[in-house]
Amino acid sequence: MTSIRRLVVLSVLGSASLLAACSPFTKVTGDGKTLAKIDGNWTVRYLAGKELDAALKPEINFDTAKGTVSGFDGCNRFNGTFTFEGGLLKAKTAGTRMACPSDAARQVSAAIADLFSNGAEVVETSIYSANVLMMKNASSELRLIPTKHAK
Q1: Smallest Cα–Cα separation from 59: which of 37, 79, 30?
Q2: CA 105 to CA 81: how far, in whole Å?
Q3: Tell me: the pLDDT tens digits for 48-81?
Q4: How many domains does the chain have?
Q5: Average of per-residue pLDDT across 8-14
Q6: How far apart, in whole angstroms, are the C-alpha atoms of residue 51 and residue 144?
Q7: Residue 132 in contact with residue 143, Cβ under 8 Å?
Q8: Can you list the positions of beta strands (E) in the chain?
Q9: CA–CA gap between residue 89 and residue 122 (Å, rounded)
């Protein structure tokens, strides 16, 4: 029985190290290898782990070739530039100043503003052949999916 337990433990440890070596997560740091991971139009699907109502469709569009960002934060349209500083995405944007239609829209708008101004760690991953972009700092967290897959 002891040798069977050893075999099971070794098998599990071997699998764990293989999974760690083949991580599906890519931290986007703004370098030439990872920057392309954020290029394109993304729809915010989750705020702080909670799925947003389908009627609310905040979007962020990154044009990595130009270093620009634009979109709709749930309340206002915005555009500007972005950079990576110390591995964190930061953006300087300007936008319209419309009233938010709901509390959820106001929360998404505030989260995007916080992530852009205070910096966000950005991670891209693929789950079941679908890309997900996660943006997070100490006080805000968003998960986005490519807009072409948003319903």
Answers
A1: 79
A2: 23
A3: 999 999 899 999 999 999 999 999 999 999 999 9
A4: 1
A5: 33
A6: 10
A7: yes
A8: 25-28, 40-47, 50-51, 59-63, 68-72, 77-85, 88-95, 121-127, 130-136, 141-146
A9: 7
Question: Is 90 exceeded by the pLDDT of residue 91?
Answer: yes
Read off the pLDDT of residues 18-51 as tens digits, 9 standing for 90 and up. 334 456 899 999 999 999 999 999 999 999 999 9
User: Which residue type does 34 have?
Assistant: T
CATH of the domain at 97: 2.40.128.270
- Kindly state whether residue 37 falls inside one of the protein's structural domains: yes
Place of tokens 């708008």: 109
In angstroms, the CA 73 to CA 87 distance is: 23
Q: What is the pLDDT of residue 13?
A: 32
Mean confidence (pLDDT) of the chain: 86
| Parent domain of 93 | 25-149
Residue 18: its H or E element: helix 2-21
Q: Does the residue 5 lie in any domain?
A: no
Query: Is 2 inside a domain boundary?
Result: no
Q: State both tokens at 76.
A: 């206002």
Structure tokens of 96?
């319209």
Residue 120 predicted with pLDDT over 80 = yes
